[in-house]
Design brief:
mainly alpha; transmembrane helix; ThrE_Dicarb/AminoAcid_Exp; cell membrane; membrane
Length: 155
């Protein structure tokens, strides 16, 4: 349990330092860090308690990050990338790409290709979650606009 809490705190500080590195506006740094920590929390819950595979856990955590980033973006009138980049920093499979290159350089092709497949699946899960969240939000926005037009038309 203590490891779980330490990982959430570490994810918050990863989001915080990433926010500083990408020059997030100062008032948004802690919000972007909260998104990173929440995304990592969802990821850990999916892995440990729901016993999902890495790809599924990454997809669900990425959905949470993308949804929160979209909501924070609208709520605080900031570009969505202000929250996206620090939020996804904890989930991006940089270590997987490193291990892929390491195994391939060491001529361990079976492990290298296995690691590459896992890494690519993780990256695909992140991209698919961002696309899903953006599409759902766009559909909801259009539905709201259509309902507003219908209400105005009936008057």
């Amino acid at each position: 349990m203590i490891n779980f809490i330490l990982q959430i705190i570490a994810a918050y500080f990863v989001g915080y330092t990433c926010s500083i590195c990408v020059q997030t506006p100062p008032r948004q740094i802690y919000r972007a860090s909260i998104i990173a920590a929440t995304g990592w929390l969802v990821y850990l819950i999916c892995l440990d308690f729901l016993t999902l595979e890495v790809g599924g856990a990454t997809y669900i955590a990425s959905l949470a990050i993308a949804g929160m980033s979209q909501w924070f973006s609208r709520r605080y009138h900031q570009p969505v990338t202000v929250f996206f980049i620090p939020g996804f920093y904890t989930l991006v499979p940089g270590g997987g790409m490193y291990r892929t290159a390491l195994y391939l350089i060491q001529s361990d092709y079976s492990r290298g290709l296995s690691e590459l497949a896992t890494t690519m699946f993780t990256a695909l899960a992140i991209a698919l979650a961002v696309f899903t969240a953006d599409t759902v939000i766009d559909i909801l926005r259009r539905q709201r606009e259509l309902e507003k037009k219908i209400r105005n038309w009936r008057k």
